[in-house]
Amino acid sequence: MQPSKDICWSLTIGMVQLAFMVLPVQAQECSKPIGKPNMVLAEDSITKVTFGDGTKAKFECATGYIRAGGSLSVTCTAGVWSEVELTCEKRSCGTPGEVQNGKYILDGILFGAKATVTCDTGYKLVGSSVRNCLVGGWDGRVPVCEVVKCGKPPAIVNGGPVSPPEEEYNYRSVVEYSCEKDFTLFGAKSIVCEKDGKFQPAPPECKMVSCPTPVVENGVRTEGRLPPYKHKSFVTYKCNDGYKMTGEASLTCEKEGWSASIPTCKAIDGPTDPGPTDPPAANNHTWAILGSVLGAVVVLCIIGVIYKFRDRFRVGYSGNVATNISEDREL
Predict the structure, then answer these.
(1) How does pLDDT run across 202-222, given as a tens digit for each residue?
(2) How far apart are the C-alpha atoms of 288 and 284, rounded to whole Å?
(3) I need a labelling partner for 107 at 20 to 30 A (CA). Which of 8, 147, 264, 316 fits?
């Protein structure tokens, strides 16, 4: 029985020694290493659960990131990994390109960024308005901004576009209208193709314009045509003698009617008869002076006549006396 106890004891001691020999070996292994953000274990290392002493594990940058520096690998030494030196940064997609008649609004050019397209006024987007910065660069294609187009311009009665209408018009194209003979254009003469693909403002209208024949009593037409009076016709009137005009002498037929009210001719008032009333007191002195002057003139005329006859009488008398004396002497 004694030999069996020795054998058991020997086996026990051997097992303990073996355990002490195995433990140091197990303590030298490393579990999976943990890297920094934005990196993962490489394919040849990711499947392992433990790493023996002195073995290496390899990292690589995560999707969308690129190596910025540092070693890719770490080493297991006595159960401890060496420091991770690898650094990763976001991949750059660069410029998304140029958009003709539009532009990008960017929130960055690194992995995960977005580029939103806006077209200029009068242009519309064809395709997606957003591009994403992915591993391989910007996704999708450079979008296209096409010019907005308008269809045929509206037709109008008694008129139409000056030039033959086309099937479509580009943004900011202008269409000009005109009216047929004897019709007048009301509203905007031209319309424009706007950013919403419609013409603005509303097209004009063509209407017949006529004005009633003016009636000016006690007056005559001196200029202008005979009725009917259409748009822009004009007439000029003059009053008869003894009448005075009130209002505008010339009228023009406008869209809303005559440019002014029809003039009138009113009789000119003559001087009033004062009747047999005495002259105003203010004129009495004037009449007195005038009467004195006239009286003096009459007196002077009478005196002149008297003197004239007296001289003639004296000449005649002297001749007669001389004749008588000579006759007496002869006797």
Answers:
(1) 999 999 999 999 999 999 999
(2) 6
(3) 147
**Strand (E) or helix (H) holding 233:** none
CB atoms within 10 A of CB 259: 13
> Using one digit for the tens of pLDDT, what is the confidence trace for 257-285?
999 999 999 999 865 444 444 444 444 45
Q: Please report whether residue 132 resides in a domain.
A: yes
SS3 7: helix
Q: Which two tokens stand for residue 37?
A: 């953000």
- Structural tokens at position 272: 């009033």
- Domain hosting 56: range is 26-90
328: in domain:
no
Q: Which residues pair with 286 in a beta bridge?
A: none
Q: Which of 26, 70, 78 is nearest to 58 (CA)?
A: 70
Q: Which residues pair with 88 in a beta bridge?
A: 67
Contact criterion met (CB below 8 Å) for 218 and 230: no
Whole-number Å distance between alpha carbons of 205 and 208: 10
Look at residues 163, 188, 207 and tell me which one is the last residue of a structural domain: 207
Would you state the structure tokens that stand for residue 126, as one six-digit string? 């064809």
Tell whether 314 is covered by a domain.
no
For 277-309, give the secondary structure using H, E and C: CCCCHHHHHHHHHHHHHHHHHHHHHHHHHHHHH
Three-state SS for 230? strand
Q: Is residue 215 part of a domain?
A: yes
Collapse the DSSP code of 13 into the 3-class scheme (helix H, G, I; strand E, B; otherwise coil) and give the result. helix
Number of separate domains in the chain: 4
Q: 83: exposed, middle or buried (C-beta count within 10 Å: 0-12, 13-18, 19+)?
A: exposed
